[in-house]
Amino acid sequence: MAAILWIVFILILFFLAQRSVYRLLGLKSVSYERTFSSSRLFAGQTVWMQETIKNRKRLPLPWLRVESLLPAQLVFKQRETNMSISSGDQLQNHASLFSVPPFTEIVRKHEIICPHRGKYRITSYTLSIGDIVGLTSKTIKQPADCEVIVFPKLRELSELPVDARRYLQSIRSMVSPIMEDHYYVAGIRPYRAGDSFRMMNWNATAKSGELLVHKRESMQDNDLTILLNAELLNAAHNVRVTQEHFEEALSYAASAAQYVVNGGGKVGFIYNGISEGNDGAVFRAPARSGAAHMDKLLEAMAGFQPVTTLGLTYLLVQLISERTRGQHYMLVSAFIDAKQEQLVRQMRNQGNSVELLLLGKEVALHG
């Protein structure tokens, strides 16, 4: 009987000792990192999430669990045996289980599908370690700084309505990569035969080792401003369009902008809904060209919400009051009422061209 008591006593001491060791030293020299293969992608594309756990000490970790709340819109392509996911409408609890020997680094990758546009952030994760007998010894919460921005899905030009396609082609045909007849210097470009030496940028030439000249803007009026309507309720017919219709409209708008920019043109953007960091004001981006400008537009679109900050009617009145002439507009909307059609005609009478891209319809109103 005494021997049994001694064995029990020793086992209790061992249990308490190892538990104290793991509680004090278990998370020492342990690091965890989570990264994504790309922080920017388009809706429908996949991204790889990589988890890296390092144990830089002699003490092994029988088990280590990493838990975090992820947006439910990030869909794991496969569910592995060492991973568990509990999904809700907006969030999902993701847990990864590791067993880490001494001085070991483990890298684990998960393929994630991003079907929906948006900005998705992971702000923290929880590390829990267990002792030899499997009980939780210590749990800590750590901040994280991971973000995935999913841009709207881009469509081929052939997928846009015929009238919108022709309008975009006419806008793009105005773009001349050769004619530079404006006094404004827009950057530098390689020297072309026939360029005047007065256009030479000698500082840039000396740094790069190749002949570079000042690049000037063209005076051709090829700017396009895209108007995206955030309204989902058609009050005239008492019909509410779905979130899917809004995403389709946003996809059309992004595709139109991309097409013009890829052709060397300039694109501006106006959105009358909530956008991240805009404090309820109408989002307005001036017409500019270049890939960097397009990236900024796509990033802004990723944060658009279909909540109206200014009705389309009031927005059109505001544009008319600015008395601009010679501008090209494309209005992308799920619907348009009689009053708004009248305002569009008024914009055209001011000397602007306005193309309507209404979802599911071929509209015969051009300008």
Automatic annotation (TrEMBL):
| InterPro entries assigned to the protein according to its UniProt record, in alphabetical order | DUF58 (IPR002881)
Top-rank taxon: Bacteria
Per its UniProt record, what Pfam families does this chain match?
DUF58
* Annotated ranges, domain DUF58: 188-350
- Please give the name of this protein: Uncharacterized protein (DUF58 family)
